[in-house]
Amino acid sequence: MWIFCSLELSTYSLSDVSPSQSSDRQQEIKECTRHLLSLLEKLRTLDVPPTTDSSIDSSTVLVGSLRERTLRLLQDHANGKVIKTNHGPYAKYIFSTQTHPPPSQPPLPSNLVFAPLRPEHFPLVLSRTPIPRKARTLLLCPSMGIFPTSPNSDPDSTTSPPPIAWAFLSPDGSLASLHCEETHRGRGLARAVTCKLFETGISSFASDGLAHADVEMQNLASQGLCRSVGAEESWEVYWTRIDLGAIP
Question: What is the pTM of this model?
Fold first, then answer.
């Protein structure tokens, strides 16, 4: 689930708001909090898709890319019981391929070729990430891989060698599961597969050319890659589990 709150568009920090400040700001925070909790209360009445994780009860939902400001509203105004777990912060990078198109990439070496990934590659993809994704989710996502090739090989063949680098665009338009096998790093392949994916996949979502990525704050290599293809760091987000049953 993804949540947006109009308070995120405000230019002031929540920590700057005190009783002595503008009553308009106080009223804005109060109204946004009321609507946010009302929305979550309504969601509690809907059928939540079942989870296979026995450690998560049926009233808990995962909220992706939650802005720090909205997270604080939930923490401060919901008795501290709504937020179950937090993962983050992550740096939010915004790609705008229309205003900042990815730089032109040199052609791949003659022994490598671009091609979308197929279901038989998904076990390899899932084995390379700690993020619990499902093969059925990857099947819905535009993908791009780099495959070894030779004059007689066909990357579309089920007997072709496995990919050595790959990336996906998640259902929310985010760059996901970007990976380059360790023995092939340092050759610019992660950047190349990212640019190729944007070239072929972003139009599947919208015509505005926008995409994004949530990057761990300590992952300096991924942050550098995002900047190298024209992305801008915009704000911090969290991946959060919310207990709808604890909404006051």
Answer: 0.81
Which is nearest to 10 in space by CA: 21, 20, 1, 2? 21
88-136 pLDDT, tens per residue? 899 999 998 887 777 777 889 999 999 999 999 999 999 998 777 889 8
Nearest-angstrom CA–CA distance, 210 and 173: 8
> What percent of the residues of the chain are helix, what percent strand, and what percent coil, each to the nearest 5?
35, 25, 40
Rounded Cα distance, 189 and 179, in Å: 9
CA–CA distance, 5 with 56 (Å, rounded to integer): 26
Closest among 171, 175, 169, 177 to 122, alpha carbons compared: 177
DSSP string, 211-232: EEEEEETT-HHHHHHHHHTT-E
